[in-house]
Write a structure and sequence with these properties.
Elements lengths: L2 H138 L5 H11 L1
Length: 157
């Protein structure tokens, strides 16, 4: 066998080995490409889920903002009502003090009226006694004639 043939066979074997290596690399590349495709699909699913979650978060954020505004409005309303209640409470306290003062004054006037009423009854009794005494003295001294006395008796009956 000539050296050219040997060289041809050697180069052919080397070329076959290179082709085999290239085939193996292409197979690995195809495997990696398939794996990358699977990962890309998985990333797409995760991205869709993230988009849905982001939309939910946006809706919740808007709802929280609305509730926060409502709470602020209610808080302001409660503050105004609290101020009104404080003013009414102060007014009621002043009226209560005034009523207490008037009640004490009425009690004093009632006691005074009771004393005056007792005095009037005493004076009325004295006047009745004096009137009866005058009547008896007038009768005993004969100021009334017989006809006048009978008229007075009929009137008193």
């Amino acid at each position: 066998m000539s050296w050219e043939t040997v060289r041809c066979v050697t180069l052919s074997a080397q070329y076959g080995a290179v082709l085999a290596q290239r085939g193996a690399l292409l197979a690995q590349r195809g495997d990696l490409s398939a794996r990358c495709g699977a990962l890309s699909a998985r990333c797409g699913v995760l991205s869709a889920r993230c988009g849905a979650l982001s939309a939910q978060c946006g809706a919740l954020s808007a709802r929280c903002g609305s509730l926060s505004a409502r709470c602020g409005s209610l808080s302001a309303r409660c503050g105004a009502l609290s101020a009104q209640c404080g003013a009414l409470s102060a007014r009621c306290g002043a009226l209560s003090a005034r009523c207490g003062s008037l009640s004490a004054r009425c009690g004093a006037l009632s006691a005074r009226c009771g004393a005056l009423s007792a005095r009037c009854r005493s004076l009325s009794a004295r006047c009745g006694a004096l009137s009866a005494r005058c009547w008896l003295e007038n009768i005993s001294e004969g100021y009334f004639s017989g006809s006048t006395l009978s008229q007075v008796q009929s009137v008193s009956d």
